[in-house]
Structure to design on (237 residues):
C-alpha cells in the first residue's frame, strides 16, 4: 500500500504549472509545497534513465527530433526550460527521493531493468517508489527482478480492457486511470479487488473532491499548490 494520507496529491511531472515539467526545479518545488509524491517519465539512453515525457524533443526542450536519436551528452546539453537540463532519474532521487513518493513511469521497452537496478543499488525503500507503465510487460519484468517495489498499471482509453483483470494479472498495487474513464462502479470494483486507484490528470478542485468521495486514493495534478490548499494543507513555501 502507498504511504501517506488517505488522499494523496502527486505533482504531475513536478509542479509543472509553475515550472518546466520534468525538471529538477519542478520536482524540488513539488517537495517544498508538501506534495505527497511526484510523477515523472523515464526513457533509456546509454544505460542511463533520462527524465523526459515525449519521444520528440521539440515541445519541452530547445532541441529537435527524436530523443532516441541523441547521445546522452547531447541530451544533457539541451535546455529543458529555464536553463535546466534534462535530469537523470538518479539526480531526482538525490534531490527529493527522501522527501516524497516517486512515481516512475516506464516510457518504453527496456526501462524496467535499469530502473530496478538503480533503485536496488541505492537501497531505495520499497514504499518510496511506484513503478508504473502502460506497457504492462515492463511491470512484469519489474516484478521479476524486484517484487518488493510497488507497481501501478496505467490505463488510457480502456477500449474494452477490464482494468481489474489487467491490474491483477501483473500483481499491481495501483490502477492508474485516466480521468475520463473513472466511474463509481469501476472504482468500487478495483477497490474490492484490493487495488488502490490513482487518477490522472486532475487540475480542477471540484473534480478532485468528487474523486475523493468515490474512494480514489489520490490524483496526479499539474497544480499541487491549489489542491493542497483546498485540502487544508497549505504550501510550506
Amino acid at each position: 500500500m502507498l504511504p501517506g494520507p488517505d488522499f494523496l496529491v502527486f505533482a504531475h511531472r513536478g509542479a509543472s504549472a509553475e515550472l518546466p515539467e520534468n525538471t529538477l526545479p519542478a520536482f524540488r518545488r513539488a517537495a517544498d509545497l508538501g506534495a505527497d509524491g511526484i510523477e515523472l517519465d523515464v526513457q533509456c539512453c546509454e544505460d542511463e534513465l533520462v527524465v523526459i515525457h515525449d519521444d520528440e524533443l521539440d515541445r519541452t526542450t530547445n532541441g529537435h527530433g527524436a530523443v532516441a536519436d541523441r547521445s546522452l551528452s547531447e541530451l544533457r546539453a539541451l535546455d529543458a526550460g529555464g536553463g535546466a537540463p534534462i535530469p537523470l532519474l538518479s539526480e531526482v532521487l538525490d534531490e527529493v527521493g527522501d522527501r516524497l513518493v516517486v512515481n516512475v513511469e516506464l516510457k518504453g521497452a527496456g526501462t524496467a531493468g535499469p530502473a530496478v537496478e538503480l533503485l536496488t543499488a541505492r537501497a531505495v525503500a520499497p514504499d518510496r517508489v511506484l513503478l508504473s507503465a502502460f506497457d504492462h510487460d515492463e511491470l512484469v519484468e519489474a516484478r521479476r527482478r524486484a517484487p518488493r517495489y510497488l507497481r501501478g498499471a496505467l490505463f488510457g482509453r480502456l477500449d474494452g480492457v477490464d482494468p481489474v483483470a489487467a491490474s491483477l494479472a501483473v500483481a499491481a498495487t495501483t490502477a492508474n486511470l485516466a480521468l475520463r474513464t473513472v466511474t463509481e462502479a469501476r472504482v468500487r470494483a478495483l477497490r474490492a479487488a484490493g487495488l488502490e486507484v490513482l487518477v490522472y490528470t486532475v487540475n480542477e478542485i471540484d473534480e478532485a473532491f468528487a474523486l475523493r468521495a468515490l474512494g480514489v486514493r489520490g490524483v496526479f495534478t499539474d497544480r499541487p499548490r491549489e489542491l493542497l490548499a483546498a485540502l487544508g494543507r497549505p504550501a510550506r513555501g
Remarks:
- The CA atoms of residues 51 and 87 lie 6 Å apart.
- The chain has a mean pLDDT of 96.
